Amino acid sequence: MPVSFLPFLRWLGEDTALAVSVLLTLGVLLVNGWTDAPNAIACAVVTGAMPFPAAAAMAAVCNFLGVLCVTSINTSVAQTIYEIADFGSSSTQASIALCAAMTAIVLWATFAWRLGIPTSESHALIAGISGAAIALKGFGYLRPEAWIRVLWGLILSTGAGFILGRLSMALTARLPGKDGVYRLAQVPGAALTAFLHGAQDGQKFLGIFVLGVSLARGWDEQGVFVAPMWLILLCAGTIALGTALGGRRIIDRVGRDMVDLTPRRGFAADLAGCICLLAATVWGLPVSTTHTRTTALLGVSAQENGRTDKGVICCIIWTWLLTFPGCGIIGFAMARLFLRLFVFR
User: Less crowded by CB within 10 Å, the N or C end of the chain?
Assistant: First the structure.
């Protein structure tokens, strides 16, 4: 989508569906920074390595840099989201279906935030898009190649996060150093996690922006992905703003209610999460920062037989399990509703 900023603004004025999809995408990006990014700084805040306002500000800057730097050189994650489904040849119906998918994500994320549960907007995004595409064109229009990468990312963000959490805790337990050393080491760990969160999630919604414009203009460019710098900056700035707004409720749920954290355990969780997110970004796999960080914390706690709140864990797991079917069904229902209201009169 090699388009400059001024023509894009003209398109927004001419195409209501495109304007709505852009606003909804920006809204989801803002919510993503608000609800996902706190996972990056949860350990540092809970163990006292950084006060919450300073940690949120640092995470906002690192999220911005993650989107800007990584997307400038590697857009493979965005490409996967861009190619997840085929919305057909009707630009009007396709744009309306995409609006429905974004609405489903906003509803799901708001519901999870109210409960203080760290759900994944990444998987909500994929499920919402797929549900809307099915409502429009049927199951045959989901692209298996992109879904395979999504499933690999799901395995990596949960299974590998837990395993690496245990391994990093086993390694850290053998290292010398007092709590003050590990508390200090958590600052760069939280910064790197926030950077990688921006690299991952910023790319996903960048892919949605490009998909929305392509659908609205009737372009058939699957396999061609070009993101202009102004769009990268827009996505980076929006997710950074959401991060700066904070997300204290989720930090308390993950870092205090779910497990007992010490500076050493927090450092081990940071290390495990960073390795997992970095590997996924290099391989171009769309993974969830929320899943990666939460399972890394559980792996760290399991390695030391630490206290865990099974009620909180069960609540989080059920929300994760319900994200794909739940957000997919909402995306399907909203797409059918929007198409009936705005197309089939």
Answer: C
Residue 178 — φ and ψ, nearest 5°?
-90, 175
- Give the number of C-alpha atoms closer than 13 A to the C-alpha of residue 216, restricted to the C-beta side: 24
Distance CA 3, CA 26 (A): 18
Supply the DSSP symbol for 142.
Answer: B
Percent of residues in the chain assigned helix, strand, coil, to nearest 5:
80, 0, 20
Residue with tokens 């590697």: 74
Of 263, 283, 80, the closest CA to residue 180 belongs to 263
Owner of token pair 């391989």: 283
Query: Over 90: is that where the pLDDT of 324 sits?
Result: no
Question: Which residue has tokens 């202009």?
Answer: 228
CA distance 58 to 18: 33
How many other C-beta atoms can be found within 10 angstroms of the C-beta atom of residue 2?
A: 7
Residues 6 or more apart from 98 whose CB is under 8 A from it? 21, 87, 129, 132, 208, 211, 212, 215
Give phi and psi for 308, each to the nearest 5: -135, 145
d(CA 80, CA 285): 8
For 167, phi then psi, to 5°, come to -65, -45
CB-CB neighbours of 322 under 10 Å = 15
Nearest to 44 by CA among 304, 251, 302: 251
Evaluate whether 323 touches 119 at the Cβ level (below 8 Å).
yes
Nearest to 130 by CA among 325, 345, 343: 325
215-224 average pLDDT score: 61
Average pLDDT estimate for 27-36: 78
* Dihedrals phi, psi of 259, to nearest 5 degrees: -140, 165
Rounded to an integer, what distance in angstroms lies between the CA atom of residue 58 and that of residue 68? 15
What's the farthest any 2 CA atoms get from each other in the chain?
A: 71
Report how far residue 125's alpha carbon sits from residue 212's, in angstroms, rounded to the nearest whole number: 13
Q: What are the beta bridge partners of residue 308?
A: 259
